[in-house]
Structures are given as C-alpha cells and as structure tokens.
Design a protein that fits this description.
The complex is a heterodimer of chains A (231) and B (517). Chain A has helices at residues 38-46, 88-96, 104-116, 132-146, 162-179, 190-196, 214-219, 223-229, and strands at residues 2-11, 14-22, 27-31, 53-58, 61-62, 73-76, 150-154, 182-186, 199-204, 207-208, 212-213. Chain A is α/β, with parallel strands linked by helices and 231 residues long. In chain A, strands 1, 2, 3, 4, 5, 6, 7, 8, 9, 10 and 11 form an 11-stranded mixed β-sheet that branches. In chain A, α2 (88-96) runs parallel beside α4 (132-146). The relative contact order of chain A is 0.20. Chain B is built from 20 helices and no strands. Chain B has helices at residues 6-33, 41-74, 80-88, 95-106, 111-118, 129-153, 157-165, 170-198, 202-207, 216-225, 230-254, 276-303, 313-344, 350-358, 365-376, 386-423, 428-457, 461-465, 473-482, 486-514. The two termini of chain B are 22 Å apart. The chains are: A alpha/beta (231), B mainly alpha (517). Chain A binds chain B through residues 46-48, 67-70, 74-75, 77, 80-81, 83-86, 90, 94-95, 98-100, 126, 128, 142, 146, and chain B through 2-3, 416-417, 419-420, 422-427, 429-430, 433-435, 438-439, 515-517.
C-alpha cells in the first residue's frame, strides 16, 4: 500500500503537499492544470526528489533512503523511455537485470514480454526504427518484466493519437490486472481518467488531494476541478 | 545517476587532487628556486616580446578571419565543405611542420624570394617578430575562421529573411546583424588565440631567437639548456604562469565553447549579395586557401623524395612519439571522461573538479617542465625520465580541451537518460558499459584524437629533458631544420604529419564506430 504522510515537496520555489494513501491494486488518475505539480508528485514518489518533510511509505516502510531503482515501482516517463543506442531486447533486458547478464531463462522471459505486448520479431530493432506506439509498448513490456507492485505513468501516451492511446490504456489495465499492480497515472485529459481510473487524485493550488472515486468526483466536481474543466 | 558506488565517486576526486598537486608542486618548486624577485632587462624584453607577438598574432588572425568566415557563411560552392574541414586541420598541425612549410615559401631560398630576386627586389627575411606572427597567423587563422563562422551561423535564418523582406542591402545587414554578432564573437576568438600564442615555443625557437625576438617560453628553455641558470629559469616560469593565469581567467569568463568539431552547415543559405562582392568573396577564399595550402604543399614536394632515404634516427623517434601520443591521449581521455561525468552528475566535490580540469590552461609545457626538472634533478638525471615527463605534461595540457569538448555531451546524457537509468537501478560498471561509454564514444574518440595529435606534434617539454636517443619526432624535425638539412627535415615532417593525422583519424573513427546508434 502506498502512503504519503504529510509529504511536502519544494522545487524551484514551488510547493506541493500530499497526505493520503492508495489501497493496493487500485488504478488512480492524477489530474489537474498544467504546472500544478502532477509530475513533481510522481517524481517524489519515484525518489527523484526528496520531500522537504513527511514520508513516502510502501507497506509501512519509509522509502526515503531507497534509491529510485530499488523502490517497489516502475515508472514510464513522457519520453525517453528507451535507450536509443540499445536494441529493444536489450532495453527490455534492463528490466530483468540492470547489468544485462541474462541467462537463458531471462532471455525467454524477455521474449515472452515482447510477445505479450505485440512486439514479436521486433526485438533486434533500435528504438529509432519503431513507431511511437511500439515504443510505448516496449516500455510497458519492460515494466511488466520488472514486475513491481506499483506502476507510475507520467503521461507516457500523450503524444499518441486517440485510438492508439485507448489501446495502450487497455494494455496497461490488462498488465496491471495480471500482476495485481497499483497504477498511478498522470494525465491532463479527464476522458482518460473516466475511461481508466477507479479513483482520481486532483492536484491544484499546491495540494494533491486525497483520491476520490472517479464517478463521485465528476458527478460533483469541486471548484478547482470545475475551473480546470472549464464548466 | 544521483549517486554511485564508492570507487567511481572517488576516482574523479583523486584525479582532480593529482592535477592540483602537479600544478602546485611545480609552482612551489619554481618559487623555491627563483633567484630574487626582479627580472633582468633581457627577461623584461622577453615579456614584452611575448605580449607583443601574441597581441599582433591574435589581432591579425581575427581580423583576417572576418572576410573568410563571411565568404564561407554566405556562398555555396563545390569544395566548400572540404575547405571548412581544412580549416580544422591546422589546429592539429605540428608547429614545426608549419614553420618548415612557411620557410619553404617565405624563407631565404623560398619561393617568394626567388620570385622577388627575379623581379629585382631585395631579399626578405622571415626571422624575427614578423616571422613569428606570420607563423602564428598561419596556425590560428583557421581557428578564428571557424569560431567566427560559427557566430555567423548562429544568427537565425529567420533574421536574415526578415532583413530581406525589409529590403536591407548589404550595408544594412552588416549594421544590424553582422556587426553585433562580431562584437560578441571577435573578442573571444582573439583572446583564445592570444592565450595560445602566449605559450608559443616551437615557432619562437625556429623563427625567433636573439635578444629582439625571444618569448618567455623560449627564454626558459635557453636558461636551462644554454646557461644552466635554473634560478633564472624558475623566475621566468613564475612570470609565464602569472601571464597565462591572468589571460586564462579572462578568457574563461569571456569565451563560450567554440563550434570546433560540430557540423557547420545550415539548411538555408544566407542571402548572398551579387556584383563586386561576389568577386571579393571568391578572391578572399582563394587567397586563404592558398595561404594554408601552398606551404603544406611545399613540405610535401620537398619531403616526398627524401621519404625513401630517411635517416635511421627517424623510425626510432617516430616510434617514441607514437607511444607518447597514445599513452598521453589515453590518460587525457579517461581522466576527462571521469571528470566530466562527476561534474555532469553533480557528485560531491564538483567545484574542485571543475577548477582542476581547467587549471592546466594557466600553465605551459615549459613551466610544468621546469618545475618537474627541479623536482627530479636531485634524485635522477632528468634525461632518463624525458618520455614519462612528456607524457604527463602533454596529458595535463590537453585535458582542458577534451574536458570542454565532453562536458556538454555529458550534461545532455544526464539530462536525457539520468532518470531512466536511475529508475532501472543502473549504476557502477553496467551504467558505464551500457550507457555512458556507448553514448559518449563519439566525442570521446574525437577528443582522444585531438589529444593524440597535439601530443604527437608537440615540441615543448621534451626539449628540456631530451638527451641522446630520447628525441621525439618533432624534436628531430626541429634539429634537422636548425641544421638547414631541409630535404631530410621535410621528409621527417611528412612522416610526422601522416602519423599525427593518422592517430587523430583512428581515434575519431573508433569513436564513431563504437558510438553507432
């Protein structure tokens, strides 16, 4: 279970607070105006920014001293999710072992992950030879291989068209269901939240509010969300 | 990439400490040995000559580079890219070879004097202030052209299109676009060349000399080798350090990194005025190309016949030079890589590392040389360690260049992929093997190539230490030139040039191969 205990994050004079928890296995959208701190929130959870005060906990343990790569989570960024100089297979292999010393078992796991996301036969390609959707699939396959209980998505599908994005969200939901992972997804599109998330964290005015069931939130939006939606 | 395993954190700090220790120990050694605090009149003359020749060389190089850069910026013609590539070459050309080429054209029995004699003109001499400045302009004009060309190309094409749409003529374009750019770029270009010429040794050794044309660097050499007056050499070394440190500090603040090595082409050519300006541009380019190519061609013509019948000493000297170049380039490349990654990743102690990486700019080959000479002399005969000292000094002196070359690339690497590597838990050896080395292989190969070529062609510290049987190839070329054995000198120079550029090309090619995406 992910817990944020009175977390305060400060970056370049910008301040964000959060104090809530997410039950295991939930799919949560993080929405709010641009510049409100959605990505900052994810960076703090992933360990790229240390909170000024408060604690990020996983199953009760404080993660403050845990390095990003050792935290019980995988993250997909907006872009640069793959190393351009490595093949797709190598990029996926990093999700199994970060020194890429893969045995036969590891290699067949990588192959299975490629097949699972529909990239069979593309393992020897470099990222530059893939389409945007294929790159997203490869990054998701790597998260699948890492098999961490929390998946953080920082708008990785923002550059995809609507149909491709819907397809990717379905894939994320399937992958998360298979591994019973908790998903925290940043998006600026309320439709993504509606289609994908059970709960929504609203980030506005320096506060990341506690998650609220999606239907409840949109049925009776608070002022900050109303402003953002323009209604 | 915020943190890493211990040894790789400590290595850059240890390297930085070593560099600091090298420079500090050198200064302490010379300060302890310096006799008195006042320079003799002859030494003041050396200081004055050093500053005069450096200022003139910088001024002429920068001023002459303007029309060449402008012509290259606004004209498109077959061979343009080749000409721009050629402009990168003299930076790596051994100074002794440049001098030899200039002697072949402008020397007593050179082509110009032959022509002059036929026309009944008096013989001109290339020795003295004007010869030194001529050689420095030859070596640094291309560098100035590249820096100014970069300035021209940094003016956005939209700005030129706007000027065109407003009906600007060449004069208005010059007033509103080109002159402001030149005001920003020229001081930096001139200062870099001033700094390079401040520590000029090989050129002054061959074309200068005598009370009227001795640089501080040359005076240090003469004090050690001819007078064996180590106290005076030490005092001169301190003076040289003071001059360099001051100029380097000013340059470091004022000068932005040049586009050296970067692609210098733009998609949309600038609007090029027709009429007489077209003729002028063509003439400028022809003259500049001739100025650079004819002396080199003369070395080839003179040296080629002698290649078949080279003195035996040359093969051995070439072997020593290649070994020195490879070792010092390896040290420079690996040190620079370790230092830039520490700085880019913002590891603790990076201020110390940044300072140490540029510190060698405040010294010179002879300053470090004299310091090391004084330090080792009580224990071993200096000649026995000539080559290790040369390797160390060359590595230290080329480090700032390679460091500056790698730094932006390292910063981009951390910005683009640092978080991804962190999120995957990559650190230590796997991070170097799978991320840093493949991503930085290209600039690292280029930087190592520059370091190898500079080291291969350098004639500096070796002159203080070299005894019988320890000469490097540039030293052999210089000896042959000094003995007026011009054919043999030219042949040896050809071997030197081939090896310098060969090493550069090999490193650069290796980097490109390893860094393929």
């Amino acid at each position: 279970m992910l817990e944020l205990n009175s977390v305060v994050v400060e970056q370049d004079g910008f301040r964000l607070t959060a104090d809530w928890r997410i039950e295991p296995g939930r799919k949560v959208a993080v929405i709010g105006p641009s510049g409100a701190g959605k990505s900052t929130l994810l960076s703090a959870i992933a360990g790229f920014i240390a909170p000024m005060s408060g604690a990020v906990r996983w199953d009760g343990a404080d993660l403050v001293a845990v390095r990003p790569g050792d935290r019980p989570m995988s993250i997909l960024f907006q872009d640069q999710n793959l190393f351009p100089h490595l093949t797709v297979t190598q990029n996926l292999g990093l999700g199994v072992r970060s020194d890429l010393r893969l045995n036969r078992d590891d290699a067949s796991r990588v192959q299975a992950a490629l097949d699972r996301v529909g990239l069979s036969g593309l393992g020897s390609r470099k990222p530059a030879q893939l389409s945007g959707g294929q790159i997203s699939r490869a990054a998701l396959a790597r998260a699948l291989l890492r098999a961490r209980p929390l998946l953080l998505l920082d708008e990785p599908f923002a550059a995809l068209g609507p149909a491709l994005k819907a397809e990717m969200l379905t894939l994320v939901a399937d992958v998360a269901a298979e591994s019973r992972a908790t998903v925290l997804m940043v998006t600026h599109d309320p439709e993504d939240a509606r289609a994908f998330a059970e709960d929504v964290v609203l980030v506005a005015d320096g506060v990341a509010r506690a998650p609220v069931p999606t239907a409840t939130l949109f049925a009776n939006p608070p002022d900050a969300l109303r402003d953002y939606l323009g209604r | 990439m915020a943190d890493s395993t211990r040894p790789l954190t400590l290595l850059p700090l240890a390297l930085a400490a070593l560099l600091l220790a090298l420079v500090t120990a050198t200064l302490v050694a010379v300060a302890a040995r310096g006799t008195g605090f006042s320079l003799a009149p002859a030494d003041w003359a050396a200081v004055r000559f050093t500053l005069t020749q450096a200022a003139l060389s910088a001024a002429f190089s920068a001023a002459l580079a303007i029309p060449v850069a402008r012509a290259l910026a606004r004209r498109r013609f077959a061979g343009r890219q080749a000409l721009i590539t050629l402009m990168g070459a003299p930076f790596l050309l051994p100074a002794v070879v440049a001098v030899l080429g200039l002697l072949a054209v402008f020397g007593r029995s050179g082509a110009m004097n032959d022509l002059g004699t036929a026309l009944g003109l008096p013989t001109i001499s290339i020795y003295g202030l004007h010869g030194v400045v001529l050689a420095h302009v030859f070596l640094n004009l291309p560098l100035a052209v590249r820096m100014i060309l970069h300035g021209w190309q940094s003016i956005p094409a939209e700005r030129f299109r706007l000027a065109e749409s407003l009906g600007f003529g060449p004069d208005e374009v010059a007033r509103h676009l080109e002159r402001p750019m030149l005001r920003a770029v020229l001081p930096g270009a001139a200062l870099v060349i001033f700094l390079i010429c401040l520590t000029s040794f090989a050129v002054a050794l061959t074309l200068g000399g005598g009370p009227a044309a001795t640089t501080v660097e040359l005076a240090i050499y003469q004090a050690v080798r001819f007078d064996f007056d180590l106290g005076r050499a030490a005092l001169l070394a301190l003076t040289q350090f003071g001059l360099c440190a001051l100029a380097a500090m000013i340059a470091w603040v004022l000068v932005r990194p040049t586009g050296f090595g970067a692609g210098l082409d733009r998609r949309a050519p600038l609007a090029a005025p027709d009429g007489w300006r077209r003729g002028v541009d063509a003439a400028v380019l022809v003259l500049a190309a001739a100025f650079l190519l004819v002396p080199l061609g003369a070395v080839v013509v003179r040296g080629a016949p002698g290649l078949l019948d080279l003195p035996d000493s040359i093969a051995a000297a070439a072997g020593r030079s290649v070994a020195v170049a490879i070792l010092s380039a390896t040290i420079t490349g690996l040190s620079a890589l370790s230092l830039v990654m520490a700085v880019a990743r913002q590891l603790p102690g990076r201020q110390l590392i940044e300072a140490a990486a540029v510190l060698p700019l405040a010294t010179s080959g002879l300053v470090l040389g004299v310091g090391l000479f004084l330090m080792v002399q009580p224990f071993v005969p200096p000649t026995t360690i000539a080559l290790p000292v040369t390797i160390l000094v060359n590595a230290a002196l080329s480090l700032p260049y390679v460091y500056r070359l790698l730094l932006p690339e390292a910063r981009a690497l951390v910005t683009d992929y640092g978080r991804l590597a962190d999120s995957l838990g990559m650190r230590g050896c796997p991070m170097w093997r799978w991320l840093i080395l493949p991503r930085l292989a290209r600039p690292l190969g280029f930087g190592a190539g520059v370091a190898a070529a500079l080291s291969m062609g350098d004639l500096g510290v070796i002159t203080l230490f070299a005894g019988e049987g320890r000469a490097t190839l540039p030293l052999v070329v210089q000896h042959l030139t000094g003995a007026y054995r011009m054919e043999a000198a030219a042949a040896a120079a050809l071997v030197l040039v081939a090896l310098s550029f060969g090493l550069f090309w090999l490193c650069e090619w290796g980097g490109r191969r390893a860094g393929t995406e």
